[in-house]
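Task: sequence design from structure.
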């Protein structure tokens, strides 16, 4: 008779411990962290315990006996996934944590012990079935009880605890989860209790207690644990879901599918899948944690007991319903493979051939085709275990870039995707929400905006999360490659507990490795992987990537190996000189403010004064809520932002609308220029990932999109450079003196397989929008790859008049195809300044990348433009309600005047909303018509009937109409 897997010594010990209820000490409680993730099943095998039906309460100290449960305070209904903080807000018990100084009302949340409770019925199962209770993320210390039996304790927020609970189940069951914050008993000094330095910045050297940049034995990202940019917050709670998986004693685990080759009309894949016979994952260990020989059998050898039962695995590969290949959902492969098993852990290793594969392509390179992979374990011809996952057939390789190697450590950074060399247009990504409110709909809004901007790769930053399944599923669908940092950020980690770290590393490698979007693994952000303090941490990561996923590009950290981070405060035209030999730009960007409505909603409006004095020492005292919403407030951030705004408006005493728009346009110009310079530097530079796409709460910071989901001006400036075909003027600088010649050479970057044939035009306007120069150039360029860059197209020189000073010049480049269709347009506004007549300043500015100058007396771009007026007309073409909170709107805007409309913008007013448009902050020629398409997120769906659409330009008055 077969020995029951419940009668093994390990399970017996667990049962003994489980019968000792709450009065156990931590030293003898079963530790539940381990590296084996239990794969989600399908159908009746999978029971989701997430959602509603949970209660949440707290105590001041952990409970010691079952009677202490009655002492839990302030119990209320909640749902998961959720942090404690969001649970309080959603229950109406506390105000919005991001508004005003409301975060102060949440400071108690990391001081309490939290108890989640839920009742659930016995799942349908056979008596021999296993039932795994799987937590996908608890932040941070946790204990688990099932029906008053203490199952064990867990540490770490990225996967687990996981435990087999079949023996503890009854007809009706109670689940209790204790959660404590990662800083339990070691809370840091309150932000408000820290003194300010002479510059007005908090003196963090005086902070005591938990240090997010030196977290000791705690494996938690610093941005959600009181680190820079998130000091008021420390997340805690059940931030990911909970599930039951009902699994037979013969079962599958952790499938791994890789694309070996794609050639001709077939793809060669390899499937590796664990098969368990009369045992399960949690009875296995990856390795021992003491010094020993790993494999040292006795003279009799290891006992292998064959399994007598007839077992097979049916493999089905079908086009993914809802993807581009839905004409026929018939399987492209359906084959059953016999298994010859031994009791214990086995592997199915099988080569598969898919005929006429439809490839998964990144954004802009084709459809992101996906397949559904379904695995069915059969016993005597009957299905007993099933799992399914999405997969995309694609190849991502790397070859050397064209530039010189300049360090000992040097990776190949030229991406070759499905056989095509590309320049990778990327972005950096912070957590969607600092308190971990991460619904799928929020991800969809953000990632669809990134796709529409032209983003092909998103880097999940190492100060943030190992991202959720929602994120990866949507990236698979949208064709966005992912660079996944592990959560090591800006610190040495000699005290990381190696077993807890390895449990998280392995569980997440296994969880994510089948996603076609996953392209790069990275150790983390801005830390030294070669330091003695990080050697063990990185060693654990590297060895497990070698074991569990050899198929992907891995870098130890960024910046390293030929990638760089740089945040210069300079004329951005220096990028292709200062960084001309950089193979990959992993981070760069410029600060700006979100739109004024963010501050009207989240900050006391009485603080909207002296906004041009943000850097002065008293500003923080008189603007507490405003500074509360300023990431890393200090002298390194404020002046560089305002100096760029000073070219747009007079920043001496601006109002909130003027200063927010001016900082955005100042940052937008910076993004446009550095993107054009680095793309034009191909094939020496092969990829660009600016910082950062979206912010994790409503703050002033480097960002293209605010926390509410509203795209800012830098989004549109960068979006235009990420278009498939982009024409740019290769300006040597932005500042000029009167009488100089401005060279007007062009470059066209082209990411399509078609050849370039058409006309390029460069035009010059004075600051009254009179055209003073124009040249047309014939373009004929073969597309040799998906990253073609034309040689410099000679556009001649424009001679600045000798009496033209402290004024702007407007430059416009256009590329039109052979049919005369406008394919791409770029515009620029270099300054002709009297300060350039100073020979000392002139030489320094030309010789080195100096800090950007502040224009205290002008010229100012916006009032200059406003002097030459035009007019716009507006017509709503289409207004479709996609869902209760989403609409797609199309409007036609016509410049009815005789001069260009400069910084033509669109807005939705009358209700709270977020939107992205196909273009904004743009140039609209005299007489030109354009259709602007908007995707709108109604933040107040009940008020969308009050919404109006508005367009205007800096030199054209507002016009609006009701939707």
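Answer:
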């Amino acid at each position: 008779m077969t020995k029951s897997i419940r009668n093994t010594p390990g399970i017996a010990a667990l049962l003994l411990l489980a019968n000792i209820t709450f009065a156990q000490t931590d030293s003898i409680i079963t530790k539940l962290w381990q590296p084996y993730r239990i794969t989600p099943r399908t159908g009746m095998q999978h029971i989701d315990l997430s959602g509603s039906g949970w209660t949440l309460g707290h105590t001041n100290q952990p409970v010691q006996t079952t009677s202490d449960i009655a002492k839990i305070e302030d119990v209320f209904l909640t749902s998961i996934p959720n942090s404690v903080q969001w649970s309080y807000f959603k229950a109406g018990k506390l105000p919005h944590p991001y508004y005003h100084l409301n975060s102060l009302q949440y400071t108690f949340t990391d001081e309490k012990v939290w108890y989640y409770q839920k009742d659930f019925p016995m799942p349908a199962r056979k008596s021999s079935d296993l039932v795994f209770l799987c937590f996908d993320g608890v932040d941070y210390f946790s204990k688990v009880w099932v029906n008053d039996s203490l199952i064990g304790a867990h540490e770490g927020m990225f996967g687990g605890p996981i435990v087999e609970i079949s023996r503890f189940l009854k007809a009706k069951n109670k689940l209790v989860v204790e959660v404590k914050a990662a800083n339990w008993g070691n809370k840091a000094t309150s932000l408000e209790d820290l003194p300010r330095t002479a510059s007005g910045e908090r003196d963090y050297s005086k902070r005591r207690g938990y240090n997010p940049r030196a977290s000791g034995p705690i494996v938690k990202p610093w941005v959600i644990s009181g680190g820079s940019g998130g000091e008021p917050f420390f997340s805690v709670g059940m931030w990911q879901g909970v599930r039951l998986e009902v699994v037979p004693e013969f079962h599958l685990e952790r499938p791994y599918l890789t694309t070996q080759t794609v050639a001709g009309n077939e793809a060669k894949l390899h499937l590796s899948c664990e098969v368990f016979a009369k045992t399960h994952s949690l009875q296995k260990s990856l390795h021992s944690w003491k010094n020993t020989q790993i494999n040292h059998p006795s003279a009799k050898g290891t006992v292998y007991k064959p399994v007598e039962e007839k077992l097979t695995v049916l493999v089905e590969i079908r086009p993914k319903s809802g993807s581009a290949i839905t004409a026929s959902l018939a399987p492209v492969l359906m084959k059953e493979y016999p298994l010859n098993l031994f009791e214990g852990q086995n592997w199915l290793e099988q080569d598969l051939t898919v005929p006429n594969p439809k490839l998964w392509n990144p954004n802009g390179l084709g459809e992101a085709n996906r397949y559904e992979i379904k695995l069915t374990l059969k016993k005597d011809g009957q299905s007993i275990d099933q799992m399914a996952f999405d997969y995309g057939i694609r190849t991502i390789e790397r070859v050397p870039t064209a530039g010189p190697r300049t360090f000992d450590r040097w990776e190949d950074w030229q991406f070759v995707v499905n056989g095509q060399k590309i320049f990778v247009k990327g972005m950096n990504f912070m957590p969607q929400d600092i308190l971990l409110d991460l619904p799928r709909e929020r991800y969809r809004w953000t990632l669809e905006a990134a796709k529409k901007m032209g983003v092909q790769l998103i880097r999940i930053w190492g100060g943030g999360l190992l991202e959720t399944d929602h994120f990866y599923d949507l990236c698979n669908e949208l064709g966005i490659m992912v660079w996944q940092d592990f959560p090591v950020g800006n610190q040495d980690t000699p005290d990381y507990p190696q077993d807890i770290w390895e449990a998280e590393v392995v569980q997440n490698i296994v969880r994510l490795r089948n996603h076609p979007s996953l392209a790069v693994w990275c150790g983390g952000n801005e830390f030294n992987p070669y330091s003695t303090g990080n050697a063990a941490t990185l060693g654990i990561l590297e060895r497990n990537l070698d074991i569990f996923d050899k198929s992907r590009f891995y870098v130890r950290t960024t910046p390293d190996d030929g990638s760089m981070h740089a945040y210069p405060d300079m004329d951005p035209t220096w990028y292709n000189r200062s960084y001309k030999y950089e193979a990959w730009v992993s981070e760069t960007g410029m600060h700006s403010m979100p739109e004024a409505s963010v501050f009207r909603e989240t900050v006391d409006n009485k603080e909207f004064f002296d906004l041009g004095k943000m850097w002065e020492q008293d500003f923080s005292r008189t603007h507490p809520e405003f500074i509360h919403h300023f990431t890393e407030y200090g002298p390194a951030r404020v002046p560089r932002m305002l100096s760029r705004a000073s070219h747009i408006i007079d920043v001496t005493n601006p109002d909130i609308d003027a200063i927010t728009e001016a900082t955005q346009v100042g940052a937008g110009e910076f993004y446009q220029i550095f993107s054009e310079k680095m793309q034009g530097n191909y094939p020496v530079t092969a990829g660009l990932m600016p910082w950062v796409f979206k912010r994790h709460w409503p703050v002033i910071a480097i960002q293209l999109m605010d926390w509410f989901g509203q795209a800012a001006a830098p989004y549109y400036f960068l979006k235009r450079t990420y278009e498939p075909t982009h024409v740019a003027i290769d300006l040597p600088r932005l500042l000029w003196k009167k009488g100089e010649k401005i060279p007007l050479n062009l470059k066209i970057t082209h990411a399509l397989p078609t050849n370039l044939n058409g006309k390029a035009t460069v035009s010059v306007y004075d600051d009254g929008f009179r055209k003073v120069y124009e040249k047309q150039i014939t373009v004929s360029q073969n597309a040799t790859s998906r990253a073609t860059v034309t040689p410099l197209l000679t556009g001649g020189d424009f001679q600045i008049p000798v009496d033209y000073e402290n004024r702007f010049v407007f430059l416009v480049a256009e590329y039109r195809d052979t049919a005369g269709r406008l394919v791409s347009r770029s515009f620029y506004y270099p300054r002709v300044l009297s300060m350039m007549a100073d020979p000392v300043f002139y030489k320094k500015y030309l010789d080195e990348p100096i800090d950007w100058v502040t224009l205290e007396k002008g010229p100012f771009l916006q009032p200059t433009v406003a002097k030459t007026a035009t007019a716009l007309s507006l017509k709503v073409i289409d207004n479709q309600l996609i869902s209760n909170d989403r609409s797609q709107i199309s409007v036609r805007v016509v410049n009815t005047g005789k001069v260009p409309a400069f910084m033509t913008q669109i807005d939705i007013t009358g209700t709270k909303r977020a939107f992205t448009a196909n273009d904004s902050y743009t140039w609209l020629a005299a007489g030109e018509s354009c259709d602007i398409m908007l995707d709108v997120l109604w933040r107040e769906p009940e008020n969308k009937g009050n919404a109006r659409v508005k367009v205007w330009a800096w030199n054209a008055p507002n016009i609006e109409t009701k939707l």
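Residues 1-24 have pLDDT under 50 and may be disordered.
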